[in-house]
Design goal:
This protein is an alpha/beta fold. 42% of the residues lie in helices and 22% in strands. It is built from 12 helices and 12 strands.
Length: 357
């Protein structure tokens, strides 16, 4: 699997009608490209709340190895978020003209958005300088804006937010801007101790409504069983089979957007919760394993019967590996509300053998 190596973090700020917008730049290289020459590119663009939520949304990619540090060094979500937030806190002001290019090339904003941009400019009362670039057949349109005017900055921020799928930050800022201001009122302060306690308590309360369980599932359509850690709610419903992704894309995104800098405290509480719940899961699985090895099949048969909806002849546990059977039993022991049909399909996808019971 290829990975993105991140070796640098930098951010700039520009004025808007509502205050300031920020753009985060990363120095990256790809593991499957040689030579691995790092280059700077814009990664995120938006207001502080918008940026705060989005930069934590995909931080789980650090833990699964998709994103790494310099020279492929392993990093965790906490490292990536802290370096990014520190860069935003130290963002320098930029106040000079910028040119947005609309065309058909990779680093151009798609030409069909030029008319949309002009309409947004008219609504804000902004009149950017218009020009063409290159041969007439290329149809490349250029719109020049001056970031010393907050209305121009507002136009860029709104346009980028409305067309994230096409007006990528690296198309709006194809080159890393040189800061021309000094740190000032737009600098973001650290989270105070009292707010840290509030965020920590809120995250702890939220996580207490969920638990971790080990599920036995067919591995990506293959003919064998794989164990997956799942998050379940108090009603026994499966919320996700990727716990950190579930937390980053849900709760953490919402909280860090509302209170910039809350991510460190929330992630600390998540790591504690994950460690404690994994220990509980391991203990319960050992208990089920012991009951099987000691020949105490009555408990196992009762769980299987209940799971099969009262039909003792249902061969839900027709799998080869005892480990997978213990995990199925763990789901039954936790009284999760799984439908028999789903379990039967999972068993049919596994190796069909005589029931363990």
């Amino acid at each position: 699997m290829s990975s993105t190596y991140i070796s640098g973090y930098r951010a700039v700020a520009f004025r808007t009608l509502a205050g300031f917008a920020y753009c985060l730049f990363n120095e990256t290289a790809e593991s499957n490209l040689h030579p691995r020459t790092p280059h700077w590119s814009a990664h995120l663009l938006g207001s502080l709340g918008d940026l705060g939520g989005r930069l934590v949304q995909h931080a789980y990619c650090c833990d699964d190895g998709s994103v790494r540090g310099p020279h492929g060094r392993e990093i965790r979500a906490e490292h990536y978020i802290k370096r990014s937030e520190d860069a935003i806190r130290a963002a320098a002001l930029i106040e000079y003209p910028v040119a947005l290019c609309f065309g058909k090339y990779l680093h151009d904003i798609p030409s069909e958005l030029c008319e949309v941009f002009d309409g947004m400019a008219a609504q804000l009362g902004v009149h950017p300088a218009c020009s063409t670039s290159g041969a007439e057949a290329n149809g490349r349109q250029v719109r020049e804006l001056d970031l010393r005017d907050p209305a121009h900055g507002e136009l860029i921020a709104r346009f980028a937010a409305a067309h994230r799928g096409k007006a990528y930050p690296w198309r709006i800022f194809p080159h890393t801007p040189s800061p021309c201001g000094v740190l000032g009122e737009w600098n973001v302060p650290d989270l105070q101790a009292d707010l840290q306690r509030i965020e920590g308590n809120a995250a702890r309360s939220y996580l207490s409504m969920f638990r971790l369980v080990e599920l036995a599932c067919p591995y990506d359509g293959q003919s064998y069983i794989d164990a997956k850690t799942a998050v379940i709610d108090q009603a026994g419903r499966i919320c996700s089979t990727s716990p950190l992704q579930w937390f980053c894309a849900g709760y953490l995104k919402e909280r860090n957007a509302a209170t910039f800098g809350a991510s460190a405290v929330c992630l600390r509480e998540y790591r504690k919760w994950e460690k404690e719940d994994r220990e509980k899961v391991a203990f319960q699985e050992l208990a089920i394993e012991a009951s099987l090895l000691d020949g105490q099949s009555d408990y196992a048969r009762r769980c299987a019967t209940e799971l099969a909806g009262g039909d003792p002849s249902a061969k839900v546990f027709g799998v080869a590996q005892p480990q997978a059977a213990w995990q199925y039993l763990h789901m039954a022991g936790q009284q999760l509300d799984f439908r028999v049909q789903k379990m039967a399909r999972a068993a049919n996808a596994a190796v069909t053998t005589t029931s363990l019971f």
